[in-house]
Structures are given as C-alpha cells and as structure tokens.
Amino acid sequence: MKYIVLLIGALLMFGTTASAQDEAGTVTASEASAQPQEEKRSVYYKKVQGLLWMEMFAGPSAYDPDKFGSVDINGTTANAPKANGPEFGGALGLGLGGFWLGGFYRQANYNTYKLMKVGLDIQGIFRFIPWVHPMVRIDLFYGRTFNGDPFDTGLTNLNVDGGGFTLGAGLRIPIIRWMSFAATFDWSMIGLAVRGNDSGGGSIKTGALGQQLAATFALTFHFIGVRGD
Q: From CA 86, how far away is CA 97, in angstroms rounded?
C-alpha cells in the first residue's frame, strides 16, 4: 500500500510540472506572435516613404533683381533696390524612393511688387541616414513680377517675366509615417525680360539677371504605400 501511494504522488507531481510548462510555452508563443503586430501599429519610422507627396512651405527671402546685369532704358541704367519679404507656396508630386519629382508654386511678397515662380521641383533625399535625411534641391521655373515694377522704369504696358533655376540643400526629418518636416537654404538665379512703352510711345525691350536667397521651411504629407518600418 505504501508503494502505491508513493507512485500516485509521483504521477501527480509529474502531471502538474508538465501542465505548467505547457502554459509557459503558450504565453511565450502568444507574446511572440503579438510583438510584430505591435510594431506594425507604430506610427513612428526612420525614413520618409509614400508615393504621393503634398507639401506646404514658407520662409524669409531676399531678392536682388539686377545683381548680375541691369536694365537699360534708352541708354539709362535703371538700378533695382534689394528687397526682403516672406515667400510661401505649395507643391504636389511623386516620391520615388530617394527622389521627389513634382510641380510647385512660390510667391514672394515685397514692398512694391510680388515675384511669382512656378515650375519643376527635383529633390534628392539620402534616406540611408535614418531619422534625419540630408537633401538637395534643383528647381527649374518660369517667373514673373506683378503688382508693381521692381526696376521703377516708368514704362506703360509693362510686362516683366522670365525664368531661372534654384539650388538648395538642407535636411528632411520624418515625424510620423505620413508626415515629415524639411528645412533648406535656397539660392536662385532669375533672368527677367522687361517690355513696355516709354513716355513717347516707343517700344522698350531689355532685361536683367538677378538672384534670390531664401530659407524654406516645409511640412510634407505622404500618401500611398506608407509603412511603419
């Protein structure tokens, strides 16, 4: 009888130990399966993504309309003063891995006139550096001034337009999966043709080559194909 009691006690202890091990294994497996789901729900990530990008930006700018060449009105040079003012705009385009390709509109408001630029924005984003991506920008654009005369020519029927390019560099910082912040310093060369009529009704055609310096602060929204990795 003594041996039977000992045998039953040993079997009960073995069963209890096996059951505890099974429960521990079940908990561990459940935690392991839940871990990837928790990571997938996270909104934070290390690099910008998304196929469709929408951007809004603003910042200070300084414009010298005839930095590299002044307009000539009937043998008289008309020098344009330097101007400072805010610049703002927006862009819409495609995120193609480490590149952005899109169209943009920018407008700078100066004291006596406004400068508008519309064109193609190309960005190279070095996403292999996580969290803070160095970036470069190249813009090609059509530009014109309106609501004033930057050269104070006194011409009637005035039309001032042309084109140029922008070179910029800065940083892009992912905030959450569908949003990032960018800050760049931009240098633009702008060539403008000046056309109009003088006081005698004669036709005037001249031009100037200038530069614009700007600091751009952008908030970008990313859509389509955004993942949390």
A: 31
